[in-house]
Amino acid sequence: MENLYLPKIAMIDKISQETPDVKMFTIKYKDPKDEFHYQAGQFFMVSVFGFGEAPISITSSPTRKGFVELAVKNAGSLTAELHKMRPGAEIGLRGPYGNGFPLKDLKGFDLLFVGGGIGLAPLRSLINQAIDEKSNYGRIMILYGARTHADMVFKTEVSQTWRKAAEVITTVDMGENLCDGNVGLVTTLLPKVKIDVKKTKTIVCGPPVMIPFVLSDLSKMGLADTDIISTLERHMKCGVCKCNHCNIGPKYVCLDGPVFTYAEMKLMTREF
Amino acid sequence: MKKVLTTCTYCGCGCNFYLQVRENEVVGVYPSKEHPISQGILCVKGWNVHEFINHPARLKTPLIRKNGELVPDTWEAALKLIEVRLNSIRKESGPDALAFLSSAKCTNEENYLMMKLARAAAGTNNVDHCARLCHASTVAGLALAFGSGAMTNSINEIEDCDVILVTGSNTTEQHPATGNRIIRAVDKGARLIVADPREIPLVKYACLHIRQRPGTDIALFNGMMKVIIDEKLLDEEYIELRTENIEELKKIVDKYSLEYVEKITGVPAADIKKAARLYASSKKASIIYSMGITQHTCGTDNVLTLANLALLTGHVGFPHSGINPLRGQNNVQGACDMGALPTVFSGYQALSSEDVRKKFAKAWGVDKLPDKAGLTVVEMINAAAEGKLKALYIMGENPMLSDPNTEHVEVGLKKLDFLVVQDIFLTETARLADVVLPGTSFAEKDGTFTNTERRIQRVRKSIDPVGESIPDWQIILKIAKLLGYDMHYDNPSKIMEEIASLTPIYGGVHFDRLKLFGLQWPCPNREHPGTQFLHREAFSRGKGKFSPIEHTPPAEEPDQEFPFILTTGRMYFQFHTGTMTRKTSQLHREHPEGYVEINPADAKALGLRGNCQVKVSTRRGAVITRAQVSTIVPEKIVFMSFHFAEAAANRLTNDALDPKSKIPEFKVCAARIEAVR
Amino acid sequence: MGQVCAIETKAITKDNIRPWLAAMLEETKVIAPEESHGDILYEFIDSAEEAFLDHYEVPPWMSIKRFFFPQMDTILKYKKGPAGIIVEPAVSELKRVIFGVRACDHTALTFCDKWYTADGLKDVYYLKRRENSTIINLACNKPGKNCFCVYADSGPFAKTNFDVQLVDFGDEYLVEIGSPKGRAITGGRYAALFKPAPQNAEEKRFELLLESKGQFKTFVDQSTVTDKLKKDEVPDILWENMAKRCQNCGGCSYVCPCCICFNVVDKQISEHEGYRIRTWDNCTFAGYTLMAGGHNPRGKQKDRFMRRYYHKLFYEFDKFGERGCVGCGRCTTTCPGKIDMARIARSILMRGA
């Protein structure tokens, strides 16, 4: 019987400081025989030995092989410890877990990404995949909001790389936006894109306070609830639907999620 | 796997549970269903008590300070150093340059030995423990009024009260098993009066919540007494037969008109009247109090005032009627009973009595025992700071977090020539020690704890001592020997036999009688079944004594510079200085950090948002913590718990003492709150 | 006739129980009810004499859950050496027989079996212990005062899935053997302790079952409660009033034989080594859902409290066809706020629209 809780040892290969409190870790398995097989939208249970385990969404694209990238915000004791680590340090990985984005359903559609803060991390995985497999999709539009310009993650991609293949608009809640000048909540960007609601699927991720506003605005724009997709985050201890922490109603974020459509989320109106 | 029934190491309720042991490790816990207190129920701390016992951070070897660092060493080296240092200090500066802090976490047997170590081996009465910080005023006050300073009723009696007055006790959080009895009583129809500035969880069950300003309890209860006297609700027959000094009381109380009391306390006159009538006109009325009453510069007077109130209405000396101080630690009752106090031997036998001293000297085989009263906890720190106290031996206490005015404590401890700390973890205090000795947790030794209702219960060894740690009672024997005094006991039951032979209230306490669920003292002889409630037909001192008490304001009151009243206490998921609870994952997760509770109106005035960082300062120090904006506290009053070293409330608290019992005023000081930008 | 899912039936005289336990002890570890300070508890016994075989109020205090899903269980150990981190799992391989298991706890185990194998994801720590255990049920002829298994469809006699079930016939027990594991501890070297089942066994068993069913004092109509939850017919104010009484002790889930929530934490022995434990958790704690950034999707006590009951009576029933409550009544004993399953169900039935 396979032991679900046994992490594989992996090594931090590269670290980039994305914002003052977000770092991106490029990670490889220690045993070269182990390979990464994952889908955009999935997550790994990351072990920092001595500090526990936490779910962290994958931010690299499955089209780029041989490593996985995880963008991590320093928000608790485990992530603080991770932030102290240097390249070469060893961590544990279990997974990938979760359903991932419904690529089948997205094929042939225009994709509108709406991200807030560190919420761009799981979207980045799909964005890069879509760019790499551009022929499968129509337009790629990316709306990204951060608290300040300094809090923007993946700055090179947001300001340069992605703009070659996609339409990118950014905004900041406060201060100066050195990318393209917009200041205001991410919802203020929605009217700036002209979309064909019949041909578009949107993928949304951001802080818990942002998501409901974006979803309802998209809905008002005429998008069907099944065409609005989001990825959720919950406190999680196992990733394999045993610890029981991550449920929303009868659904489990680890197994049924973390990707849900707005239609599915509407059925989860109550939090228990 | 095996299971061992033992007594909880957290609060004074004395729940019994089974520790589950696998390969010499405690891996689980569950309550006893038949035990009179537990009844199959535990609080969250009890349910998680197993986790700290085998925690990897347990001290496993002695530590000795070398070049400023504490480094592991052998028992031989540690004991040798202690021998040399303690003996030379005693020789140079006399026995009173030594002091001993005993522990309310340790067993009765250990506390008895610690007191014997101080008095017979070291030759000083400088022995005290944390009861000084929680119920010294109870011991002093109730001894004066009734002749005996303990809870008069039993926990289970509360369930059948008609009226319960809870004041200065957050019972459901700090004494959950007792709080549970209060809820059961209310479910059965009892009326609950809560007199507490904070809106504690029990308020949900109360018919009346009185929110007196901190430090105005005497005025409040004097006001209630005036209503009772004016409306002739007093128990004249009881007063006539069982009390003395009523006329003196009446004289003082007369000036506490409702208007006057309302002005001092801020409590509406109608509420005072309602409380007085409710309390006085019920047959089975009980007062439950804790540190909200005792931790004041008028702590003893507060206790005496409650005693007056109970005597006036004939509410002491019956089942379901009485005065019930809830003791904070698992064995703080026992540590007091054992005489780990600077003025009494075990069983509260006065040091000042020559007969008592002779009795103990004879039993202990020494020529004479010191007769000068010893230093109390805060006095020890003061004496250390002044350089008069040279060596301090601390067993299982953490004054760096638990004592008021931390900065001053640190100065005192650092000034000592020699500090020994015996504990299970490297506490904030142990970090300052010259020698640290690894003691054992309650799971690794035999003995007894005495709970808050005077129930002496067995503590049973479940696992062998962790690492090289040694049960605390055996360490004390070694220390005594170093000081040239030999003590020998095969096991703790032999120590209890000596205690029983010298201590009338424990006279009938023997391990073979404690097999089931213990005995409640007084238990003077082997045949005696123990005592469920005190003062049945007569008070321990004969007649109950009224002591006329005037309201006195706290040592420090708010002013322009420090406009808030800071009051301190504890939280449900943590215990005391967090030494054990913060190493328990579930408890730490639920309450990982300290905060200051502040009323929304005050927060608004200061421009504070929930969860923002604030600086709380007083004349003694400042800490940075999080603001918890909540109506639990009234306006102009803020509350902090003292569990967290990184936001240590006791850096702020006032070390002003009650002159009668030397308890510091943890519950009131003037503070300033500022946002941290 | 009472439906019996035994592959074979035998009988054993009461005098032969201790010799049977003694014989098993020679081969394996045995867990049996034991008397301690008035409490009846399941514990490992060292000799057959330690087992408590007289009558007691059922069920024994604390379920057998902890022998499969311990309160604190080391799941792996790690070491950081020059060659990097080495992780070693810690899976228990201990073989044991559990004697005197009541139908409620047994049904709870089958519920846990479903949970720990659900979605094709198998929990090795639980399943290894399960695999290594043989369970001897003892049917309840007389329910305890808080018992309501009969309404949870989980007792007083186990219907299926047991290894061995004993039914108290007075001087002897009817021995129902339900699995190869059950055969192993009643046949072979143990066979001589048993005799053929009495002639009228089936009738007698049926009578005893009926008699037992007639003695339940706690009535909990779980299916109506489930219906009301599904139809969202329980007013919020009921939950609010109940949740207010919660004392946050965690006891309800610690004693519940069906509560499977766990927390996982690491403990450091030193900078270079440590271990990972999993511990019992409770969904009514605020920290259960609190996220690292400070957001708590179930910040209100009421929501957490509802979650507990929605799960047990609605979601798990939908997923597994079984409720996460077997009617053992232990939460009635342990809940200081008196808001246990039986009382909640009763209030829902009385007041839920």
Short description:
The complex is a heterotrimer of chains A (272), B (677) and C (353). Chain A is an alpha/beta fold.
Overview of this structure, please?
The complex is a heterotrimer of chains A (272), B (677) and C (353). Chain A has helices spanning 77-84, 103-106, 120-132, 155-165, 211-220, 262-266, and strands spanning 8-19, 22-29, 43-48, 52-57, 68-73, 90-97, 110-116, 140-146, 167-172, 200-205, 228-231, 247-248, 251-252, 259-261. By secondary structure, chain A is α/β, with parallel strands linked by helices. In chain A, helix 4 (155-165) links the parallel strand 8 and strand 9. Chain B is of the alpha/beta class and 677 residues long. In chain B, strands 5-4-16-15-14-6-7 form a 7-stranded mixed β-sheet, sandwiched between helices. A 6-stranded mixed β-barrel of chain B has the order 21-25-22-24-23-26. In chain B, strands 10-9-8-12-13 form a 5-stranded parallel β-sheet. The longest helix of chain B is centred in the N-terminal third of the chain and has 19 residues, at 75-93. The N and C termini of chain B lie far apart (54 Å). Chain C starts with 7 loop residues before the first strand and ends with a helix. Chain C has 2 domains: 8-213, no CATH class; 222-351, no CATH class. In chain C, helix 7 (222-230) crosses helix 10 and helix 8 (236-244) crosses helix 10. Chain C has helices at residues 17-25, 103-117, 124-131, 149-152, 180-184, 201-213, 222-230, 236-244, 251-255, 301-320, 330-334, 341-351; strands at 8-13, 29-36, 39-45, 72-81, 84-89, 96-101, 133-138, 164-168, 172-177, 195-196, 262-268, 273-280. Chains in contact: A-C, B-C. At the A-C interface, strand 4 and strand 12 of A face strand 4, strand 5, helix 3, strand 11 and strand 12 of C.
Largest sheet of chain A: 6 strands, antiparallel
Q: What CATH first level of the largest domain in chain A would be assigned? A: Alpha Beta
Low-confidence stretches of chain A: none
Q: Largest chain-chain contact?
A: A-C, 45 and 53 residues
List keywords for this structure.
heterotrimer; A: 272 residues; alpha/beta; Elongation Factor Tu (Ef-tu), domain 3; Rossmann fold; 6-stranded mixed β-sheet; B: alpha/beta; N-terminal domain of TfIIb; 4 domains; 7-stranded mixed β-sheet; globular
